[in-house]
Task: structure prediction
Amino acid sequence: MCRPQGDDNLSIARNFYLGREPVRRIAGIPILDFAKMREMSRRVIHDFGLRENVSVDDEVETLSGGERQSVKIGRAVEFKNRVIIMDEPTNHLSVREREHVNELALQLRDQGLLVIYITHDIFQVHRLADRIVIMENGEKIKDISTQAMSADELEAVIRSGGRAVHKEPPAS
Amino acid sequence: MTGSTFRGIVRRHAELGITLIAIALVVAFATTSSGRWANFYNISTILQVTATLGLMALGVSLVIGTGEIDISLGSTFGMAALVYLWLFNHANPIAALIAALGVGVLIGWLNGVLVTRTNTPSLIITLGTLMIFRGLAIALTQGFSFSVAYADRGDPVYQALGGGEVLGVNTAVLWLVTVLLALSVFLFATPSGNRLLAVGGSAASAHSRGVRVDRVKTFAFVACGALAAFGGVLEAGKLGFADGSMGRLMELQAIAACVLGGCALAGGRVSLVGTVTGAFVLSSIQSYLVVIGVRPQWFILLLGLIVVFAALGDKALRTWALKGR
Result:
């Protein structure tokens, strides 16, 4: 869900509800409930720390990478998703924006959501996650609570491609 | 602040450019043709041409909105005109209208299914159907034309479908206005319209949000075929006859009208008002060339130049509007 590209041509309000548009029926025809779409999008812009001068009618393409991620995360919250999978959410983001997205991930966790955060950066995830799973070629080679291993130790596991754990030397 | 407000207006109203062009051309044409262009009869003719071309262009703007293209609609236009006239003479007007629209729906559906099921570029598929149905139209007419006898042209259905006038304006113009309003509501105020635009912006991303991309695209092709067919019916009603070459090259004019009107060929950005204004500009130019005595063959050359410059101008304007964000 967190690829930086998107339906950039749509306004934030339209993009936010894409696929689940709220409607009011006028003579049986479903007409978009613009008031609700704008209201919710405005709240997201405010709550998720987008720039002050961003309007709900601006196209998504006018947003920065971090702001786009914020909108996507806001959507997950609004639709009351219980599990949020963030696949490389901080790629192509500036340092400050990366911090912002990571903070949002922590906030979501604190609200009781399950966040699956996929990344290559073990040092980044070590600061965020409660539990770390290292995968290689579709196999789980490490599944551990964060306190149990330091980031450096985890990096060693990754460097060795899991061999340290997985392929134990044959018993003599 | 004023600069950025204006940028916002340009960003949100893609039809701004074509509207300015239209105003400038109307003034220029009216002042340089000593009344031969700007008179009621000529303007009403331009509006009739705008109506049939505009219906076609509105249809193709939906397809362009999804990021595809339909160049077969000149043949759809011609086929529908022939079917309408033939059945008008051999059955009844309502059946003729339904059958003609059915032909458009069918050709559109064929285009849509072939494009979405086989993942083949729509340019190739619709190039094929353009030739198939043009060939069919020529084969069906065998060099003759279908026509409706003057005695039969008083039929109220025939009159309502482009064959008559209301207050001096061809009924096709009223249909254009009706379709423009209906499509505007559909495209900009319904969930389906929102999804159509999203598909054009990024099909993969729209798909990831649960939008049925293939269905949306097929729908756009069907609507395009139906509107091109409707345009063909109205044109057949106006002329009272049609032959195998009816609607030739009109697909290019329709696409040009979309591009002039501010629709992005890459998809995702559609201006319906702009598209109709584009159709009006093209028919105005055509009419101007006629009244000042330029051979109409030059129209295609001029059309090409206008499209190239409009595309460049639009890109420049768009780049400027997105700057400084």
Chain B has a mean pLDDT of 88. The beta strands of chain B are 145-147, 165-166, 169-170, 241-243.
